[in-house]
Amino acid sequence: MAVADRISVKMNFAAVWLVVAACLMAGLPVYAADGEGDKPVVSGARVAGDEARTRFVMDLDQQIDPSISALQNPRRLILDFPEVQFDIPAETGQTGRGLVSNWRFGLFADGKSRIVMDLKAPAAVDKTFFLPAIDDQPARLVVDLVRSSDPEFQAFSEQSRKTARAAAVKAAPKADKLTASKAGERPLILLDPGHGGIDTGAVGVGGTLEKALVLEFAKEFKEKLDETGLYDVRLTRDDDTFIPLARRVEMGHELAADLFISIHADSVRRGRTLARGATVYTLSDRASDELAEELAETENMSDIIAGVELSEEPADVTDILLDLARRESRSFSVFFAKTLVSELKSAVRLINNPHRSAGFRVLKAHDVPSVLVELGYLSNEHDEKLLITEEWRGRMATAMTEAVHRFFRPRLAGTPVTPSQ
């Protein structure tokens, strides 16, 4: 399949998830899929009812063994189960009915699928049952939801908190501390393709999925860096898997990365005709402008979209050594951002004021210089057409490689590196 075709494949937003979740919440028995055959197939899903009682029906070819949890602020039901195949229309789940405002589904981790349902009000499972296939009718899982109270929903959410938190940590690949870069070795660069799995990221006006586009680009960028033989280059993800934002930051820390580059291609709600061109972002407590603030808010929603419990922000740094490390990392981050913008100017189109800043959670490592690169904006049809071409990606990757060379040149030459160089 061609690159453009792979990128443009739309993710199915399936209503399916709600069903199984309710099953566990009701305390009724669930059934494991028989044997080690093909992945279960979901062929249909629909929701009906009102905000007092809502019924969800999912068509599938075999029973599955799901686990269910709940999260608050906003209210979500989370359904996890072994990887399944969703053969349902892409638009399924984008709008809801009754107690369910919308739902989404996708790969959450290797061999694990997830459905996240946004609720209009607190809900409980009244009953759930499974209907075997009869004649030409597929097997069906039926879940009836009823309106509950905030205390009841909160109780269930708190009960599932520890389990959900453990599952979120297990969902992401672990960085091996034994493989971390050591003194005297090649600089270690961690490339972070944004989104993944259940979190599709932005969807372009022509159907391009951000999660696929940035992964494709990150792999090409890695190849160019690897060809030089000067760097040890890693990826936070190398397939269509979701990774929580905090875990991405932890990977940079565990690997003792010398540079962290998060790669995105967002969509914006304001100024669709004006927001065009590559942009480089660094971390700051206050956004440099409205666009930067909007993008930070969107990117920081990634965990909510995927059904991950939001951890509390760390307290203000009081240790003077940590504070100094954070300031130094921010200085190097800004230095690399300016270097990158300088290289990109002669290679690709840049947005006005291409170096911007905001409170991106993925850039909050205190000990790793970190930047977020917007390749372009999928809400702009001209950007989207360029981003899916091999020629544009090649030029962008080459320019970014040159920026990396400039950033590490003093170190590779054996001289101390300072942000002013």
What can you see in these coordinates?
The protein has helices at 3-8, 17-25, 150-159, 161-171, 210-228, 245-254, 290-299, 302-306, 320-344, 381-387, 390-412; strands at 41-49, 53-60, 67-71, 76-82, 85-86, 100-109, 112-119, 123-131, 139-147, 188-193, 232-235, 259-264, 278-283, 350-358, 370-374. The chain is of the alpha/beta class. It has 2 domains: 9-171, Sandwich (Immunoglobulin-like), CATH 2.60.40; 177-412, Zn-dependent exopeptidases (Aminopeptidase). A 6-stranded mixed sheet has the order 11-10-12-15-13-14, with helices on both faces. A 5-stranded mixed sheet has the order 5-1-2-9-8, covered by helices on one side. A hairpin with a 3-residue loop joins β1 (41-49) and β2 (53-60). α5 crosses α11 and α9 crosses α11. It is elongated, with a radius of gyration of 23 Å.
Quick tags:
421 residues; alpha/beta; Immunoglobulin-like; Aminopeptidase; 2 domains; six-stranded mixed β-sheet; elongated; disordered N terminus; N-acetylmuramoyl-L-alanine amidase; MurNAc-LAA_cat
In short:
By secondary structure, the protein is an alpha/beta fold.
Q: What's the name of the CATH homologous superfamily of the largest domain?
A: Zn-dependent exopeptidases
- Sum up the overall morphology in one term: elongated
Can you summarize the main beta sheet?
Answer: 6 strands, mixed
Widest β-sheet, arrangement of strands: 11-10-12-15-13-14
What are the low-pLDDT stretches, counting only 5+ consecutive residues below 50? Answer: 3-36, 171-183
Q: Share of helix among residues?
A: 25-40%
Order of helices and strands: HHEEEEEEEEEHHEHEHEEHHHEEHH
Q: Count of DSSP helices?
A: 11
Strand content: 15-25%
Classify the fold: give the CATH topology of the largest domain. Answer: Aminopeptidase
- Rg result: 23 Å
How many structural domains in the coordinates?
A: 2
In terms of quaternary structure, the protein is single chain
Mean pLDDT: 82
Number of strands: 15
Q: What is the first-to-last residue Cα distance?
A: 44 Å
Instruction: Identify the CATH class of the largest domain.
Output: Alpha Beta
Structural class: alpha/beta
CATH-defined architecture of the largest domain: 3-Layer(aba) Sandwich
Pfam families: Amidase_3, AMIN
Organism: Roseibium denhamense
InterPro entries: AMIN_dom, MurNAc-LAA_cat, N-acetylmuramoyl_amidase_3
Signal peptide: 1-32
